[in-house]
Amino acid sequence: MDYSSYQHLLIEKKDGIALLTINRPETLNSTNFRLHNELSRVWLDLAEDDEVRVAVITGAGRAFSAGGDFEVVEKSMGNLEVVAQTMKEARDIVHNMINCDKPIISAINGVAVGAGLAVALLADISIASETARFTDGHTRLGVAAGDHAAVIWPLLVGMAKAKYYLLTCDMLDAKEAERIGLISMVVPPEQLMPKAMEVAHKLATGAQQAIRWTKHSLNQWLRAAAHTSFDYSLALEMLGFFGADIREGLTALQERRPAVFPSAQAKK
After folding, report:
1. What is the bridge-based pairing of β-strands 65-66 and 17-22?
2. Which of 92, 106, 17, 91 is nearest to 59 (CA)?
3. Which of 88, 98, 205, 267 is 20 to 30 Å from 223 by CA-CA measure?
């Protein structure tokens, strides 16, 4: 399998394990148009690669992925063509990760937001450094929580916690994320990659059909959610790019101040 077309994902293979590194450390691995596209299709390539039995994904530098680039948001506002492409790719990230028959491990080395959070949580096993932090971020921007949230959060943490964190966009640290069941485990920073590779090696040397069929069976829960609430939530997120709130949400983030959303103002 040729991975030379990937620009922001570094892919290294050894002993049946593919190590994927999100490689935009100068922007805390934020998701630009190119990276978003690469995250949507890499799982198809890995699924077809006979040399790969397990995938591990992490981020370069001190972040896993700090969410979407401001440029992506700016170019999406009011632009049907851009929004349609983004919606397709967001859908592909979720469905292609769910349908990839090989185990995926996320080694979450820092902040995880937006599409990066989707990848981190949709991994079959999520291992976080004690320095990792999590927030969905959508409602803070002024759009509905689409991406992955409706698929995975209620299953991982229950509806009460899912509603709280998705509605408020409060930040979780790694220990709290583990406590409520959002991630599989948390380890000290220096143990993150050794632990992720230890688990990957265990899976890569295990009974492949048994492991893959077990993943496939468990992911029937995710497929059921993906075919109902996910597509609905993603469509509602995209609809928000044509409203007034997102302009204020983006400006507030750029200026690092609380947003004053038009929809929250009293009507005269």
Report:
1. unpaired
2. 106
3. 205
Are 65 and 123 contacting, i.e. CB atoms less than 8 angstroms apart?
Answer: no
Helix (H, G, I), strand (E, B) or coil at 151: helix
Tokens matching residue 103: 């185990």
Q: What is the mean pLDDT of residues 34-53?
A: 97
3-state secondary structure of 55: strand
**Using CA atoms in the order 242, 259, 151, 43, what is the torsion angle rounded to 10 degrees?**
80
Number of residues that make up the chain: 268
Going across the sheet that includes 185-187, the strands are 9-14, 17-22, 54-59, 104-108, 125-129, 185-187
Residue 124 above 80 pLDDT? yes
pLDDT confidence band for 268 (50 / 70 / 90): low
Asked whether residue 221 carries a pLDDT value surpassing 80, the answer given is yes
The answer to whether the CB of 244 falls within 8 A of the CB of 153 is no
pLDDT digits (tens, 9 = 90+) for 4-37: 999 999 999 999 999 999 999 999 999 999 999 9
- Helices 33-48 + 80-99 axis angle, to 10: 30
* Contact between residue 45 and residue 52 where contact means Cβ atoms under 8 Å apart: no
Q: Report the first-to-last Cα separation within the chain, whole angstroms.
A: 61
Instruction: Note the pLDDT of residue 225.
Output: 83
Q: How many CB atoms lie within 10 A of CB 73?
A: 21
Looking at every residue in the chain, the average pLDDT score rounds to 96
What's the CATH architecture for 9-192+199-211?
Answer: Alpha-Beta Complex (3.90)
* Domains in the chain: boundaries: 9-192+199-211
> CA–CA separation, 141 vs 150, rounded Å?
17
Give how far the C-alpha of residue 194 lies from the chain's centroid of Cα atoms, to the nearest Å: 22
